[in-house]
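Let us begin with a simple case.
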Amino acid sequence: MMNFKMLMKALGTSCLVLACTVYSSHSAISAETAQPSKVVEKAGEVDLGALIQEWAGEMDHVYAETVIRNKDNSNKIFERLGIKDSAFKRYVNSIKPKENPFARLVPGRLIQARLTPKGEVIAIKLFKPIDTLSEDITYFQISRSNTGKSKFVHENKTSAFTTLPVAASAYVERTLDGAAQSAKIPAGVMKQVKEQLGDSFDVKKVANGDSFNVIYERRQLDGADLGPGRLLALEFFGKDKTVEAYWFENDNFKGYFNADGESVEKTFLRMPCEARLTSTFNRVRKHPVTGRLRPHWGIDLAAPTGTPIYASSDGKIVTKRYQRRGYGYWLEINHGSGYSSIYAHMSKYAPGMKEGVQVKKGQLIGYVGRTGMVTGSHLHYELKHNGQQINPLTADLRTGEPLTGAVKQEFDLAISPIKRQLALLGKFHLAHNSNSSVSIE
């Protein structure tokens, strides 16, 4: 995870932006600098395997990446990666199916290979998925062995990754999500943006002409792009409201603060999944299945089956059950200080979720479903305080203290280059009249 000293070093000189590569619909890297002298085409697309072989001839090794696709098999993947190693392929086939992820390919997972100029495998990694708040990554690795009878060995490993900051600027023409897509801001980052904006106004009412700037982490391991991480800074400029949030952490403080050092960190997520509100917290509601009038001490969030559900705050799972004529698959998390939360009608739990397990705010705990007494796929979410249900959409969930004294001075020093960076990005955005993102190296 990137700390603030590392971020300040990356952002310390505002002119760094001018030396960065800018990605937008109105700019691109020149062909002379972005492509090799010769490109081999196949059915209108670049033949990655041939291209890798061309590059590999000029170096000791080369890294290649691919993402598992629907209807993929190991041979198709190895061909895309440029692997020409019969001994490696025989070794993969010799691994027991229960230990071999190549025998049960999951679409969307990233694979990275390190190859010799002849296409022989030095090492290959198949990464498990991670969420935006993960601090390490687990992967299955096969590597060439210098000892023993076998040419290769395999193992499951967990490693910390490196991060670099990426800045992006977006201009709203129709919707917040549309602006984010134009600026190539990842969905995982936008979930965090919406969480920060959610306490200030309805994100669905963002107006044409609003704009926002963000800095977020991009995570890597040995050159492999592992996707976005934590939102580090947000500045939103609306017609009637401005919102700012800066991530700050030291030995004693951790969270989001505004420029004055006041905490904007919410103890709980108001909506623990990306979904549409279909039923509110209500003392009297007609039950959609039984037709009876009864209280609805929670909120219903409609989403497709399989939509990820995240823990609304740090805590311990105290209940994990199935209730056929009720909540279906559900669990309850005790957050301490009298707070607990309930997640019901799941399709399944995330791996490792069981009673007694500690979870972190924003950690994946399960998936939206339609188990129990339901009429459609949704999450029923409840938040309790001292045993009494409270409305998670309106309750005061902010408990953070403002920064003062020496810590406030440290915070001011930390966010000063970030604010300059975002201001310069905003000016660039206005000058080019386009949504854009900037990699800061």
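The second case is a distinct protein. As before, the sequence precedes its structure tokens.
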Amino acid sequence: MVSKRVLAVVVAGCIPFALSACTKAPADGGERVANAAVQPPKPYADTGVINLCSAFTNPPRIYQHDGERVGAEFELGTALAGELGLKINWTQYESSGLLSGLIGKRCDMLIDEFADRAERRDKVWWLPSSYAVTQVVVPKGNPKQIHSFEDMPGKKVGVPDGTLAQDMVVAWNKKIVAEGKAQIDVVTLPNTRDMFQQVAAKNLDAAVGTDSSAAYYGALANGGIESGGAGCTSGTTDDDRVGFLIRKEEPELFKAMEKAMANLRSNGRYQSIFEKHGLGSVTLDKFGDGKPPLCAPGVKL
């Protein structure tokens, strides 16, 4: 069952015009940020500030609601900076401008759902943050007992037009029909919002979307929809995780953020952040070193 959104609380850190009150000199003569669980690289310790950037258009991961910046990844980015004892300067960019903002040094880390792409590994470090998971969503109570793609033959299933979810369900439908199973009644909707509204109204037996959209619209539906079962992946990439990006010439910042992420995972805060936003099933800790199961085994997209 997806949970309601909870507004993030920004973790305050040191402020640059009061640095002397926020830092102390360690034995090596550099500046050390007070209350930092992980020591930041010297340039960040000197200013006490890190520039984080996002498009803020991906509910419930990171977005704006009633003028407030909220979401699981917003809270996670805030918590990571807090581990380094740093204050955050948040900046919003169009999705298409995020990478140039990072390379151009206007951003120190990008907070959004980024896959680990080979073509940019020479430019950025990739910090895994969660899995990108597909979710089967059903009306409250799951009256048709649809928990996975395996349960869809003979059922009425909605998909958003032009999405990976649509491609998967259509390909799966062809496969099961060829195997002699009942055909899925695939209903294509213009957008995710309309699709989940149809699920809540019980005009669809199930729908397929992303974990993020399921959590967000599930909260808006006030209990009218729920997850049919565990999340699954398309199998279209070798690694179904997504993460944050840091400039390649900043290995010390990357190492510090790796340590910060490990701290948040070990103390339970990381999992708690995602659970508050209905994303507890897609965390790194949920799957450990494994991966979510394939949505449509045997289907090639």
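The chain has two domains: 16-131+239-287, 134-227. The first helix runs from residue 19 to 22.
Keep these points in mind for the review questions at the end of the chapter.
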